[in-house]
Amino acid sequence: MTDHDEGVSTLAKQGSITFVGNVVNGILGFGIVMLMTRFVSPSVYGLFVLATSVILFMQVFANLGLPLAIDYFVPQYLADEERGKAKGVIVQVTATVLVTSSLVAFALAASAGFVGDFFREPSMEVALLLLSVTIPMLAIYNVLLTSYYSIKKLQYRVIMRDLVRPIVRFSITAGLLLIGYGLLGLIVGYVVGLFVAISIGAAVFTYKAWDLLTADLELVAPKPLVTYSVPLAMTSVVFVLMGHVDYFVLGFYLSSDDVGIYRVGYMLGSGLMIIFNSLSPVFKPLIAETREDVELVQARFRTMARWIAGITLPIAIVVSLGASSYLSVLYTPQYAEASAVVALLAAAFLFNVTFGGPDGSLLQGMGYSRMVFANTLVLFGANFLVSLALVPIVGIEGAAIGSATALFLVGALTLIEIYYLDGIHPFTREFGKIVAAGVPAAIAGTPVVYLLESDLLVVVALPAVVIGTYLLTLLASDAFTEEDARMLGEFSPRLEKWLPVG
Predict the structure, then answer these.
(1) What are phi and psi of 61, to 5 degrees?
(2) Are 25 and 166 in contact (CB under 8 A)?
(3) Total structural domains in the chain?
(4) What is the pTM of this model?
(5) In the 8-state DSSP scheme, what is residue 181?
(6) Rounded to an integer, what distance in angstroms lies between the CA atom of residue 291 and that of residue 276?
(7) How far is 245 from 376, CA to CA, in rounded Å?
(8) Beta strand ranges found along 110-269 (DSSP E)
């Protein structure tokens, strides 16, 4: 392995681009939910969440997991200068998912009444009929996203996913809610935002990847695509179902009000995914292109794990301690009921994303798609069974316990599997310093929550105290490495010189 891994530079550059996009997307996403929770009741918002959960679940069947083959095979073909085959993968996947997604959309539209009856929500039939058109749209949307991942040009993905879609959706939704359209306003904003994002994303990809798209088409054998994709398709089915099973169980046992309140808590807790989601799209191709070099893979995994843990840990402490205040200020006081949900999920997501994430991006990059599928079955099974047992007893906290249990379990499985198969692990002395720095940060933040009576003051003061203490602890423990300095240098040479390295 060379002294300076260029993959780390790529991870930093592209990760910083996606991070900015994720921050903008997150702000606009929170803004949309804040808008919804102020203009519609929790029951209407909960109904919309249930309907979109059904759509997102069905669209996984529609694309057969094939978009995931793009950012696995295309980087390899491009590395071998086989541009025709890289184009062939994109063309074959696009044509296939267009057909399958259209069929699934028709099937859902035909069964919309049955789904509405199952959840005892008559209005859901109309919502599903209107939203069914988004199933083929989401299939093409996912093809575009993974195409951007495969060529490591994530700035264009940021334009489509993190800027155009949320801005258009927010604008349309706000306008329709202001003139009193309620549920219809939420649906139209969702559909129009997706349509405009796909249109602009396709135009940008065509322009920026023109040399790839104009290469002589060379169709590839479908068997490797299917062999890789089918386990991940099943993984995606289970994974998406896992992500929405909470809403399904809550919708069956409780009311749409509870679904809406839980969704807000889940959204705040899962906000910790922002760093992982920024690095993961480029991390998987980086692993895939060097998967035979175990030493290099481990070095990249350790770098990613340290950065994810180092940035995510103080955020987890802030949202866990101040959950009630953040829910009350960002949304309305009635949503503070989900504070325990936020704390449980923050801890679970922190653990899970540090060691590969709920989608198993490390295992995917190493080619272990069947193992990812098996892990996802565990993820879904644990979440479903625990939620099913606890929701009727303890309400929305039962769903949170189910999700947290599953995330902890799969994070641990990923660590065990990757160590057993390749001897890879992320644990170093430097990693330990990152985790240990969270203890004084949490201790310093606790009095802020209990001594300040104003929720707004807690929202402002808590991040300053926790993050400030955390950074001082890292400096005092000499936790930064040469690799950290190089990573920071990709953002600013001045930061690289400033960072004290032991």
Answers:
(1) -65, -35
(2) yes
(3) 1
(4) 0.66
(5) -
(6) 20
(7) 13
(8) none
pLDDT, tens digit (0-9, with 9 covering 90-100), for 305-316: 888 888 889 999
- At residue 244, the 3 state secondary structure works out as helix
User: CA triplet 27, 28, 29: central angle to 5 degrees?
Assistant: 90
CA distances from 407 to 120, 347, 358, 375, 382 (A): 30, 10, 7, 10, 9
Q: Judge whether 452 lies within some domain.
A: no
**Is residue 33 included in any domain, yes or no?**
yes
With b for 16 or more beta-carbon neighbours within 10 A and e for fewer, the 448-462 pattern comes to bbeebeebeebbebb
The answer to whether residue 464 sits within a structural domain is: no
Q: Which long-range contacts (CB under 8 A, 24 or more apart) does 73-82 make?
A: 73/220, 73/224, 73/225, 73/228, 74/147, 74/150, 74/151, 75/150, 75/151, 75/152, 75/285, 75/288, 75/289, 76/288, 76/289, 78/150, 78/151, 78/212, 79/289, 82/218
The answer to whether residues 59 and 101 touch, using CB atoms and an 8 Å cutoff, is yes
Res. 167: pLDDT tops 50: yes
| Residues 409, 389: Cα–Cα separation, whole Å | 18
Look at residue 355 and tell me if it is in a domain: yes
Taking the chain, what is the end-to-end CA distance rounded to the nearest angstrom? 22
> How big is the chain, counted in residues?
502
Q: For residues 40 and 50, what is the distance between their CA atoms, to the nearest angstrom?
A: 15
Q: Is it the case that residue 222 has pLDDT exceeding 50?
A: yes
Whether pLDDT at 128 is above 80: yes
- How far out from the chain centre does Cα 485 lie? 27
| Token couple for 337 | 């009921």
**CB 375 within 8 Å of CB 413:** yes
Rounded distance, CA 133 to CA 156, Å? 25
Question: Which distant-in-sequence residues (6+ apart) come within 8 Å of 26 by Cβ?
Answer: 271, 274
Cα–Cα distance, 484 to 495 (Å, whole number)? 10
For residue 136, give its domain range: 6-427
CA-CA distance, 304 to 283, in Å (whole number)?
A: 8
Looking at residue 1, its pLDDT comes to 40
Which two structure tokens, joined as six digits, stand for 412? 């641990």
